[in-house]
Amino acid sequence: MKHGLLDLAERIFVLGLYGALVVRIVESISADGLGLGNLLLLPSEGLVFFFVLLRRRTRRVSARPGDWALAMVATAAPMLVRACPERALVPEFVAAFVVMMGTLVQLHAKLVLGRSFGCVPAHRGLKEAGPYRFVRHPMYAGYMLSHLAFLSMNASAWNCALYLVCTLLQIPRLVSEERLLGLDEGYTRYRARVRYRLIPGVY
Fold first, then answer.
1. 163 falls in which pLDDT band (50, 70, 90)?
2. Which residue of 36, 55, 83, 112 is most buried, as measured by CB atoms within 10 A?
3. pTM of this structure
4. Greatest distance between any 2 Cα atoms in the chain
5. Taking phi first (over 0 means left), then psi (-120 to 50 degrees means alpha), and beta for anything else, what does residue 200 get?
6. Between the CA of residue 37 and those of 66, 89, 107, 132, 172, what are the distances in Å?
7. Are 146 and 106 in contact (CB under 8 A)?
8. What is one Pfam family matched by this protein (predicted)?
9. How far apart are CA 25 and CA 6, in angstroms?
10. What is the C-alpha to C-alpha distance for residues 179 and 62, in angstroms, rounded to an integer?
């Protein structure tokens, strides 16, 4: 019962965040005529909402307040960004290409996870195929790539602060996920085989 309520709370939280992001981007399109690059943020962040809705329930989800705080803040921060194309640091087509690459990395990882995706640490089954053969958390690598590209098109102090908070929280978030998954012997073997978390040969 408790896990079901936690699962529902997470879904409602993500729905509210994504809905607000869509409204802000659409309003900016009407007011400022934003280009394709900023529009690409919607499918990138929308993947989170889509897979949270489709995921399967779990009997093992973290109830630690710290884990929930990490997951909620790290999920919320990138959905609070605002478009300000007048502050672009790079040509839009360059940033748009990088956003697409980051989105494809996320999509591949999430398709491998399927209904096992979640924001808060939980155990919904182990996945070792696709990009998980190279790093243990390819989704986060894709997020960082997309975030960097969007920031390069919308280089405001607000957006920089949000993405900095999100990035700084990813490491303890990864650790909390691995602490829960480490209760499974299969994950312990997988972790020994795939050494790197985000970037092959680096971390």
1. very high
2. 83
3. 0.75
4. 54
5. beta
6. 34, 13, 18, 28, 30
7. yes
8. PEMT
9. 29
10. 10
